[in-house]
Amino acid sequence: MTAPVFLVESLAGVRAGGTLTLDGPEGRHAVSVRRLRTGEEVVLTDGHGTGAHGTVAAVEGKDRLTVAVTELRTEDPPRPTITVVQALPKGDRGELAVETMTETGVDAIVPWPAARCVTQWKGERAAKALGKWRATAREAGKQSRRLTFPEVADPLTTKQVAALLADADFAAVLHEEGSTPLATAELPAEGRIVLVVGPEGGVSPEELTTFAEAGAKPYRLGKTVLRTSTAGTAATALLLGRTGRWS
Prior knowledge:
alpha/beta, CATH 2.40.240.20, seven-stranded parallel β-sheet, five-stranded mixed β-sheet, 31% helix
């Protein structure tokens, strides 16, 4: 089994042969929940592509341990990057979408309150829901042993999503009536891929027009219709395979 991953604020100044202290909530999880002991392997990451690999040198109390760093590893930036614009699902299915997309390998997630979304983020609820999405991405990043965690952006309006699509190297709207399969689309080897996943009620005709004007064409995944909470994960997996990132 690969070594468990824990998040630290910074790895600045950390070198192989040195030590690093893990405390606070992450230290408590490592000591009291995972029950790590001296000599066990562990990875500490900043979530931005760097990981300090080492072994537990000492455990103090219930929430603090010292790691003897044996190696620093840095992930190469992904090529191309994959951003999913995710319409807001109902209930906790938003966290499910974020979790599985993170585990699969998405690079960025953009919440989108589409016109047909039953759920709408407003006021304190918006801040709380966004916080849950970001916490889910962090936990799923650790669980899947990633060194680079996906960014969960602030929610964007349809107009702002259109601007994001216009700036992409490949832009697509997942739509069950799309005539072209995503599996046959011509993809860039570099740059940024942006996918839009609509709500359960579908992307509205007005939104489709706005996105088309920004250069995003409708594509379908397959013969079945996926829920909004699973479509982004399936599309990400397809693209990771087709771009060679899973090779």
